[in-house]
Amino acid sequence: MASTRQLHRLLRSTYKGTRNFSGSPQPNPSSSSSSSSLKIIQKEHQHSAHNYHPIPIVFSQAKGTSVWDPEGKKYLDFLSGYSAVNQGHCHPKILKVLLEQAENLTVSSRAFYNDRFPHFAEYVTNMFGYDMVLPMNTGAEGVETAMKLARKWGYEKKRIPKDEAIIVSCCGCFNGRTLGVISMSCDNEATRGFGPLLPGLLKVDFGDAEALERIFKENGERIAAFILEPIQGEAGVVIPPDGYLKAVRDLCSKYNVLMIADEIQTGLGRTGKMLACDWEEVRPDVVVLGKALGGGVIPVSAVLADKDVMLCIKPGQHGSTFGGNPLASAVAMASLDVIRDERLAERSAQMGEELTRRLHNIQQQYPSYVKEVRGRGLFIGVEFNGKSLSPVSCYELSEKMKNRGVLVKSTHDTIIRFTPPLCISLDEIQEGSKALADVLEIDLPDLQKKKPKDAAPVAPSACDRCGRVLYG
Q1: What is the distance between the alpha carbons of residues 74 and 67, in angstroms, rounded to a whole number?
Q2: Rounded to an integer, what distance in angstroms lies between the CA atom of residue 359 and that of residue 349?
Q3: Tell me: the pLDDT tens digits for 156-203?
Q4: Of the listed 63, 152, 158, 291, which one is catalytic?
Q5: Are 316 and 148 in contact (CB under 8 A)?
Q6: pTM exceeds 0.85, yes or no
Q7: Is 174 noted as a catalytic residue in this protein?
Q8: Per the record, which residues fall in region Disordered (predicted)?
Q9: Which of 77, 84, 185, 186 has a CA positioned 20 to 30 A from the CA of residue 232?
């Protein structure tokens, strides 16, 4: 393997320039006061549900790795829509397909056939090596689909007694916010006030294969599936021990349990492989894709499985008006083309190694603040020491990075994810990591002085399900 110095030389010679898709004009500052960032934020606050707490920046235009606000200020995107724009914002090849298809046919519903979805179905199943695909729109819909599919398979093929099917998930998981999905969650904010939650669900520690086998031994005859993120994203980019995914595969096969991999965020090149399960050469029974499958321009999700599983669902038992629509199908094929043709998985592995190295250097420089840097490819989490950071939160650090022109978002108060578009350049990685270093050197001490100690973030509460404090 190349030394760090050799790798750095290779990356700089290969990935030095901008990746903003040459020929794309930079936006001009907005001349309309009604379109100012402040006015837009106020309008959303007044007329939209308060179900998000965004960083105070307004996206007006974007290309590649860069975003502009209505005033014309440029920012470097280090979140990439939670991996929805792995290919980069407004990729010209994806937009070309979007526009061409939009002029011909957009929606047919599944009451009829259309001339795009069958091609997408063939493309995606061949690419990932599964017999069939069930198309949906959002990632949460994909996970709900996988859960329904698992229960149906459990009753029809495994002969689980009626209404006794169990699905096992991991503590700290995040698979969306629909009612069925939050029933697997350990996030009290996502679950409190929405009960009763879906029954038939058990929890197990992520990364603990022995605990998983104990659950299988105790409840194996009624367990239809085990669903997991190969790397937990919302939990803070938590990576399981080496060999865990392979052990899960072996246990699921041994106890006749479907292994479902939620690759919505980890898939499509994000971790340096096409799927995160590829790191251990594991083939799940069911794979859920989303986010980058739509190329950052339209919601597309897909559930992949073989016929023995997929054909358990019959006509009328599941579906979506927009699932498999011709516009989404055309865009999804173009999105996969870009990932393959531009070798974005390989790029993620190489650039991720460089970004991780720089973040480790920052950790060495500020060991009292930075607790851990972890990740694979360009899927990286930086965990901070909440006590030394206090009374400042990572949300406030994210705001300060925004002020320095780099966009990130915290999770669980003490973790910041660094997940830029996979087309990012070496110079942009240097810019992003420098912004973090500057925030820790200049902004954080100033914040700590100005913010009273009694304004410290509220301590995380114990999980309602397992009684443990999972975050913070």
Answers
A1: 6
A2: 15
A3: 999 999 999 999 999 999 999 999 998 898 888 888 899 999 999 999
A4: 291
A5: no
A6: yes
A7: yes
A8: 14-43
A9: 77
